[in-house]
Amino acid sequence: MSKISLLSDKEGVDGFLARNSCKPVVVVQGLGFVGGVMSLVCANAIGAEYAVIGVDLPTPASYRRICSFNEGVLPLKSSDPKVAEYFNRARKKGNHYATFDPYAYTHADVVIVDVNLDVLKESGAKGELTDFEVNLDPFSKAIETVACYCKPEVLVIVETTVPPGTCKQVVEPILHQGLLDRGLPTDRFRLGHSYERVMPGPNYIDSIQNYFRVYSGIDEISAEATESFLKTIIRTDEYPLTRLQGTNATEMAKVLENAYRATNIAFAVEWSRFAEEAGVDLYEIINAIRMRKTHTNLMFPNIGVGGYCLTKDPLLASWARKKFFGADSDLEMSVNSVSINDQMPVYAYERLKEFFGSVDGTDVVFLGVSYRGDVGDTRFTPVESLVNLVKSDGAQVKFHDPYVSYWQELSCEVESDINKVLVPEPDLVIISTAHSVYKKEAFIDKISSVPASKVYDAVGLLSNEQIQKLKSKHRVSVLGRGDIS
Q1: Which of 411, 459, 469, 468 is nearest to 438 (CA)?
Q2: Cβ neighbours of residue 105 closer than 8 Å, sequence gap 6 or more
Q3: Which pLDDT value is given to residue 484?
Q4: Is the confidence at residue 99, as pLDDT, over 80?
Q5: Omega before residue 424 within 30° of 0, cis
Q6: With 50 as the cut, is the pLDDT of residue 87 above it?
Q7: Which domains does the chain have, with CATH numbers?
Q8: Average pLDDT for residues 240-252, to the nearest whole number?
Q9: What SS3 class is residue 211?
Q10: SS3 for 360?
Q11: Does residue 42 contact residue 234 with C-beta atoms inside 8 Å?
Q12: Is pLDDT larger for residue 26 or for residue 62?
């Protein structure tokens, strides 16, 4: 890969803009799972022709990602063919560029903020949440960078999931002060909030471009500007926009969405244990209940909750309630749902030992390391906790995943060839992520061909027919089902 100057990429930015003169400039701050694909959607806008620059931090990982974008190597592995299609189309048009240099903000007509905002958790012995804190400093520094370079007339749209109150109490003052310090007008910038509902997987692009959006602004002019921009990248004829009364409302909407989902999952955890005790199949029960239109979103049990949203968003809301709005108490049900979900990998392991016994001295293969099926994202994956528990009890582990080649959090390689993790024959196979490839009969046949061992389906992926097929040779257990051995 080409070398990147650690000091400046001004020449690269200027050259790109010279090749895209007269086009409005959209700068996406953050090139991760949301920002990277958002930048491609903007480069393939349906109602305008933009020059799009993605800006990431000057870190080794970011340098690799930036070089990949600029050299025509898609740095995102996705099951959605549209991602590669949009990338190749942007390459052909020449209207997409990646950089680490904040100089890009000086040309931005629109800045889309897609940076991380983390919650710092403290946990007990079983993963239960004991305390948490929201650190706004990295997010605030990202906004300060924009404020130090942006034009007075810039439109800033925050897509990052933030504590309710953040745009008004954090972002707006920072932008105002940054312009004031540079002797520039402070009454021309526009600030909107439109949270992302990105779903990495087979509908990655559609979750941005062909999906409903909620938006707002800090004032009427900001809301209008945000709406005008969103109409150029989203198919609003099929997916109309929804405007809320202000940024506090849209910020609350996002965390409420995810708090509801996290609570729904926590509810299923309790019932999965009851189902196992009663010797029934909770998946079968839930499918029967889902026939009612009012209950179609009842959740299945699982190994645990992962990813960047459900593991923290309810906590952002509770933190904001106390820090920004002066309440004395937490959003207790929402906080408790996160705590219950954080304990799910421990329960999954206890269920494993209860059914199969000790794993000490055994060879264990994990099928899937990402937090969600058909996604290559290991951030906060519950598989990590289960792996650590299995290893701590003396097992040797191998990993397979069709979407992950290197598990950054555990600093280890992940195999994509199933044959290589099944030789020599494992003592235990754990289906730990619901990748669709694991449902295919060819894959089930591959597992069936292994000498007699144990199969633990921790995500409820297997059908009854597949379970019976595997049972002819192996011992099989499914989380959320009664004893089926």
Answers
A1: 459
A2: 27, 55, 111, 145, 146, 148, 149, 150, 154
A3: 58
A4: yes
A5: yes
A6: yes
A7: 10-250 (3.40.50.720), 257-485 (3.40.50.720)
A8: 98
A9: coil
A10: coil
A11: no
A12: 26
